[in-house]
Amino acid sequence: MVQKEDMFGVFWFLVLMILLNVSSATLSPSGVNYEVVALMAIKQNVKDPHNVLYNWDLSSVDPCSWGMITCNSDRSVSALGLPGQSLSGTISPAIGNLTNLQSITLQNNSFSGPITGAIGRLWNLQTLDLSGNKFSGELPSSLGDLRNLNLLRLNNNSLTGPVPKSLSEVQSLTLVDLSYNNLSGSLPKVSARTFKIIGNPLLCERTSENDCSVVYPEPLSFPPDGITGESSSGGKSRHLAIALGTSFGALLLLILIVALLIWWRYRKNQQIFFDVNDQYDPEVCLGHLRRFTFKELRAATDHFHVKNILGKGGFGIVYKGLLTDGTTVAVKRLKDDNSFGGEIQFHTEVETISLAVHRNLLRLWGFCSTENERILVYPYMPNGSVASRLKDNIHGKPVLDWGRRKNIALGTARGLLYLHEQSDPKIIHRDVKAANILLDEDFEAVVGDFGLAKLLDHRDSHVTTAVRGTVGHIAPEYLSTGQSSEKTDVFGFGILLLELITGQKALDFGRTAANQKDIMLDWVKKLHKDGKLNLIVDKALKNSFDRVELEEMVQVALLCTQFNPLYRPKMSEVLRMLEGEGLVERWEASQSIETPRFRALESFPRRYADYIEESSLVFEAMELSGPR
Questions:
Q1: Same domain, 368 and 416
Q2: CA distance linking residue 506 with residue 384, whole number of Å
Q3: 546 catalytically annotated
Q4: What is the rounded (10 degree) CA torsion for 572, 578, 357, 438?
């Protein structure tokens, strides 16, 4: 009998295939980014034993926040890099839909099957490295359509058949390595400076050993002897001497030019990165912030080594760092620094963020700002994020028991209350969710990444043209109009409460049921109405929770997630209700609002899933922190 999970996998794969062929627009009618759909189709064909693609998620609308993905400034996918990740499977033809790709590096894995001809649609591709895999079959002739291709590595596979003649039409190539395959047939004239075909017996038997190893373009030739009237031996000697002298002089001149360029670039980079200590004292502060040098942070993170990555998000990558005084820090290296404006603008926004000081807010310690870099430095949170700990168990018991979850809700509410009602200026987070709530050494909630959405939108008015957030957490009015307020954060907090209660992501709750469109909020409303709260609670808690507190927390969550923002409480009211004050009265008042007579006056859909489907705005999801 077919397992239900397998049926759902097939269902989602069919949906992906349909979406891939429906439209070439950036977004499908339901607001799904076509690049997300293409990447998910690629993931569907990949076996990932180490779960390196863990955050590739169809519910996300911004693949730039995913691991192994690099994006352009317009947030289109420009590079797919998965070298040496023990991956296997085949390459989906959906890769041809990532038309902005400039680099594909999948070397040293165990991919098999043919190389899809859809790669020929990647007209911007400059680097294609599929070496060290198990690809078989013939090389696609569509490789000749990659007119911007510079580097092509297909060595150490099991490829057969001829080298496509179309490769001779790619004039931008500098290196082609087809060695150690089973290629055969005639060899086309390829313009690459380095062309390796060694290890292909059926090709090498047609050439000399040297030509088989590396084929270069034809060397420059000198005029025949008869043109100058020189004698055979004397003319050859003189031509050879002139040629050698000219070549040596040209080579010497080239070396000098390259040396000057390297020296100039080194001096320029010194001004950007290394001469900060000469320009100013790193202890000089912006307000109470310390200004770090790039050299310090690079050393602290071991040259931003991948082993120190704590998480990736829409704003950049977070690294664990160790300062020279022994302090452990979290170093957020912002990507696409042009989005953050000039030096003065960046300093102004960073100083504003640093002024928000509260025990439940992640305090900014320092920053680094150079011509090419924007980096923020925070204290290190040893227990990661709520999202990363919800599934953790110790000796069969959840790390986040009911008491800790209740305290996380209270701490997060206090932090948001400060941002909304006590901070000057007021700060709207715009992406409140479990992944952005961090946990200190005592599992106290610390709200992270507040203010960064404002920093990104410094050139925009209060009405944005793109929705920044995570699907399932975005308030309905924000989806509809692009206008954010403190009430959009209240909605996100309500969803966070449901994540704490259920132990699941906002978009995961209904995926084990027949209706794939249902999401957490709609399910909780239905189960609460039916009096089945026991089905909502995280099974990992094993009935170890306070049922009165559960009912109260669900009611607060539903009050926070009312579709009309005018009906949602302020964070100060939310905190009081979580502490046991005023919830009964507020809940009773909300029930009269939900009567058919009142709802007839409103145009809000009854289901949150309908809001997501009907939204006409462009999504630009910002996984502000991502898992840590």
A1: no
A2: 19
A3: no
A4: -140
pLDDT beyond 90 at 570: yes
3-class SS letters over 478-503 = HHHHCECCHHHHHHHHHHHHHHHHHC
At 149, is the pLDDT very low, low, confident or very high (cuts 50, 70, 90)?
very high
Does residue 175 surpass a pLDDT of 60?
A: yes
Residue 61, domain member (yes or no): no
* 82/232: higher pLDDT: 82
Average pLDDT over residues 537-543: 89
> Residue 40 CA to chain centroid, in angstroms?
13
Within 289-339, residue ranges assigned H as helices are: 294-300
Segment 98-142, tens digit of pLDDT:
999 998 989 889 999 999 999 999 999 998 999 999 999 999 999
pLDDT of residue 510: 44
| Reported confidence tier of residue 508, pLDDT bands at 50, 70, 90 | low
Number of domains forming the structure of the chain: 3
Please tell me the distance from the alpha carbon of residue 564 to that of residue 196, in angstroms, as a whole number: 65
In a shared domain, residues 345 and 435: no
Rounded to two decimals, the pTM is 0.53
Whole-number Å distance between alpha carbons of 528 and 516 = 20
Q: What is the CATH number of the domain that holds 419?
A: 1.10.510.10
Of 379, 407, 424, which one is at a domain's C-terminal end?
379
- Same domain? 293 vs 436: no
Q: Which residues, in sequence order, are CB contacts of 334 under 8 Å at separation 6+?
A: 315, 316, 340, 374, 375, 376
Give the chain's length. Answer: 628
Indicate the helix (H) or strand (E) that contains 330.
Answer: strand 328-334
Backbone angles phi, psi at 341, to 5 degrees: 75, -170
Q: Are 114 and 137 in contact (CB under 8 A)?
A: yes
Q: What is the mean pLDDT of the chain?
A: 76
Q: What is the DSSP letter of 16?
A: H
pLDDT tens readout for residues 189-210: 888 878 888 888 887 655 554 4
Helix (H, G, I), strand (E, B) or coil at 392: coil
Of the candidates 429, 385, 311, 307, which has an alpha carbon nearest to the alpha carbon of residue 66?
311
Cβ-contact 483, 469 below 8 angstroms: no
Tell me if 76 is assigned to some domain: no
Identify residue 62 by its one-letter amino acid code. D
Q: Are residues 501 and 559 in the same domain?
A: yes
- Are residues 352 and 390 located together in one domain of the fold? no
Secondary structure of 405-452 as H, E, C letters: HHHHHHHHHHHHHHHHHHCCCCCCCCCCCHHHEEECCCCCEEECCCCH
Residue range 505-534: mean pLDDT, rounded: 69
**50 pLDDT higher than 60:** yes
Give the domain range for residue 495: 386-619
Say whether both 444 and 483 belong to one domain.
yes
> Would residue 129 count as lying in a domain?
yes
| One domain for residues 289 and 321 | yes
Instruction: Give the active site residue among 57, 145, 431, 449.
Output: 431
- The Cα–Cα gap between 142 and 44 comes to 24
Say if residues 617 and 479 touch (Cβ distance below 8 Å): yes
